[in-house]
Design a protein that fits this description.
Structural class: mainly alpha
Keywords: Membrane, Transmembrane, Transmembrane helix
Number of helices: 2
Oligomer: single chain
Radius of gyration: 13 Å
Length: about 60
């Protein structure tokens, strides 16, 4: 397996990944307002925020 050891636990990588999820989620929620895309975008934004909190706590 290529990722048997998991992804690297680099603080910069985690910050970028969480930040991208947060930003993309907010953009999707904004432009998809009034449809199911709003829920999808908000879910992405929440996932990104949680990722940032957990990554910064563990690093």
């Amino acid at each position: 397996m290529a990722f048997a050891g998991g992804f690297p636990r680099d603080e910069d990588t985690a910050s970028i990944g969480g930040g991208v999820l947060l930003a993309v989620g907010l953009v999707v929620a904004f432009f998809g307002w009034g449809s199911w895309w709003t829920a999808a975008g908000l879910a992405l934004a929440v996932a990104g925020a949680v990722w940032l909190v957990v990554a910064n706590r563990d690093a």
